[in-house]
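Quick one: Carboxymuconolactone decarboxylase family protein from Corallococcus aberystwythensis, structure tokens please.
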Amino acid sequence: MRLISSQTFTKNFFCGIRTPWTLASDEVWLRTRRLGGCHIPLGTGVFRSNEPMLTPGEDMTSTRIPPKELTGLYGAVVKMFARRTFGQVPRSLGVMWHHLPVLKASMGFGQKLQKWDQCDEGLKSYAHMAVASLVGCSFCLDFNYFMAHNHGLDVDKAREIPRWRVSGVFTPLEREVLEYAEAMSQTPPTVTDERVASLMRQLGAAALIELTTVIGFANLTTRSNTALGIESEGFAASCGLKPMAPPGARLGEATAS
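--- reply ---
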């Protein structure tokens, strides 16, 4: 039986979708393992050493839909890349495995979104985290904190997202973006003409549209995860990142300067 490379698996079984589990050849993975880092930022994705994200005896709150076993050749490939990327197969993946078309569509759009380059990556990352903090999605907050570290963003700012209104680390533009993300996430949305006009002047039309779409996608993922009981899986903690700051004041509440 001829062994085929992970790149061939990727091409044949992931239908062209770039996911965190379909991003490296075996050669790249072996080079990453030799470097011995917690996670190595490469042009194609995130790679972690094969260490568990939970300490012995620790367990996550059960999801509302029990995770399904990843079966078949496709499942074997996904598990292989998940373990190489995260050290274990995320429980959230097992939950979504009940409906593969939904899983593939979500990952596919998420990967396309990551290729957009009209808006600053930091602004988009902080906006997504602001939505996660507001909605209460610990999975997205933890994962995006982990990704901010991997992508070389300011982790001190990322750590402060839950209390951004009372934190002094953000620039005026970043604060406007975070305000916009929270306003978009209210029911009904509380976005004002003045806020959009201000961001339009500073970012331009293309970047503002991109930012808005990222925030909309963040609402989809955070609210879906929260409804399904998908919680943090310890991505940031596994890399030794400091805990997120405790939540501060929210939209409509009195804040201190």
